[in-house]
Amino acid sequence: MRLNRRSALTVLSALGTSFGIPLIWNPRATAEGPSLKNDRPGIGAIGMRYQGTVIALKAQAHGDIVAIADVDRNVREQARASFGSTPDIYEDYRHLLDRKDIDVILIGTPDHWHAKMVIDACRAGKDVYVEKPLTLTVDEGKVIRKVVQETQRVVQVGSWQRSDARYRLAVEMVRAGRLGRLRRVTCVAGPNPTGGPFPVRPVPNALNWNLWLGQAPEVPYTEERCHYTFRWWFEYAGGKITDWGAHDIDIAQWAIGELPVEIAGHGKLPNIPNGYNVPIDFGAVVRYPSGVELIVQEEGRIGVLFEGEKGRLFVNRGTIAGTAIDELKDHPFPKEQYKLYDFDDPNRPDRVGKLDAIVNHMANFFDCIRARRLPISDYESQHRSATTCHLINLSIRLGRPLRWDAEKEVIIGDEEANQHLSREQRKGFEVV
User: Fold this and answer.
1) pLDDT tens digits for 161-204?
2) In the chain, how many domains are there?
3) What average pLDDT does the structure give for the chain?
4) Are residues 48 and 12 in the same domain?
5) How does DSSP classify residue 207?
C-alpha cells in the first residue's frame, strides 16, 4: 500500500480510502485543549527514570509539572526534587488521570505499559506524549487507533528523529526522487546483549513490583528485568529492534511511503533460564509493494542508508551525506518543497531545523494541542512503524517469513503467527 501524504492529516485520509477506515481527525475538532491561565497546561508525568524526566524537563517550557507517578518511591522522590519539590507524587498513575488540573500526560515507562496508559489517559480527556515504541503488540495499536478516534485527543510518540532537520531533509529528498527510484534501505540496530541466568532477589522496599509488571506474567523479582534492562526481555519489550529500530525503521518507512508485504527475519533465541531472551545474531529483510527492500542488521554504522538509481544517502543523528547532498549546492532543496508534514505556522520557523530535535518535537506536540491537529509522530504512523518491528521479531521467533496484509492487519495464511499479534494479559491490566 502506498502512503501518499501531504501531511499527517492526509495520511489518515489515505488510510481511510485504502483501508475502509473512516477519517477520524478533524483539524477543527471540538475536543477541549488546555484552559489554564496563560495557556500553561497542567502536566502529569508517569515513569520518571531517566527518559521520563528528560521529556518532563523539555515539556516544562510549555506547561507546569503538577504531579508525578512512578512505581519506585526512590525514583519518584528524586524526580520530584528535580522539579523544585513542588509536584505531588503518586505510586499509581491513575491518580494523575483523576485530577482536573492535569491537561497533558507524559509517559516514560517501560514499553509494556505504553498502550494501556495512552488509552487510559485519552479516555480521561488528556492529551498524551508517549515514549516509543507505541506498543508491545500489533493488536495494541488497533485499540489505540479506536480510542484516539473516539476521544479526539492529541497523541505524540517520542520518535523525535522526525523533528530532526537531517532526517527530515533525507526523507523529503528521497520522496522527491533525488535518488531516483529507491531500491534499498538499510538500518543498523546494534546487537542485543546476552545474560543470565539471573538470581531471584527480594523485592526492594521502595518498589511496587506487581504494579511494575502490569500486564506481563507474574514472576519473582529479578533486578535485571527492571529499569533499563527490561529492554532485553520479550515480556516487556523487543530488544534493539523495537528500541533503536523504532527510531530508524520509522524513518526508513516514512521515506519508503509504503507498508510491508513480506517480513523475513533470522536470528538465534537464547535459551537461558531467567535470562535475556531477545534474539542475538539477528537480521531481517522487509519487502514493500514497489519492490523496495528494507535491510535490518546488527553490525555497521548506526543510521539509515538509502540506495537508489542515482546514488546513496546516509543519515544519522550527527551526519547527512551522499550524492544527493553533494548536489545541493547546485540544486537546492528549499523548505517550501517539504511535503510530508505541514507545520502550518509560518510565524514559527524555529520549529524546523533546531539542533535539539527533542525540544522541537515537544514544541510540535504542544503546538498541536493548541491547534487540535495531528503531530508529526502521530499514533497511526507510529503504530505502523511499531508493527513492522513486531513482525520482524515474530518472524525471528517463529523461524519463518511472514506475508502481511496491511489493510486487514493480519498475517496471510498463518493462523499460528496471527495468534501472536496479541498476548495474554494479567487480569486488571488488560489493554482494551
Assistant:
1) 999 999 999 999 999 999 999 999 999 999 999 999 999 999 99
2) 2
3) 90
4) yes
5) B
Q: Give a yes or no: residue 432 inside a domain.
A: no
Q: Quick count: other Cβ atoms within 10 Å of Cβ 287?
A: 18
CA neighbours closer than 13 Å in the CB half-sphere of residue 67 = 20
Q: Are residues 116 and 152 in the same domain?
A: yes
Do 47 and 67 meet the contact criterion of CB atoms below 8 Å apart?
no
Does 392 share its domain with 350? no
Residue (of 281, 324, 370) closest to 173 by Cα position: 324
- Give mean pLDDT, residues 88-104: 98
- What is the gyration radius of the CA atoms in the chain, in angstroms? 21
CA-CA distance, 9 to 26, in Å (whole number)?
Answer: 8
**130, 107 Cβ separation under 8 angstroms:** yes
3-state class percentages of the chain: helix first, strand second, coil last, to nearest 5: 40, 15, 45
275 & 408 share domain: yes
> Are residues 150 and 251 part of one domain?
no
Neighbours of 35 (CB within 10 A): 9
CA 121 – CA 111 distance, rounded (Å): 16
Ranges assigned E (strand) in 80-198: 88-90, 104-107, 127-130, 155-157, 182-188
Same domain, 198 and 131: no
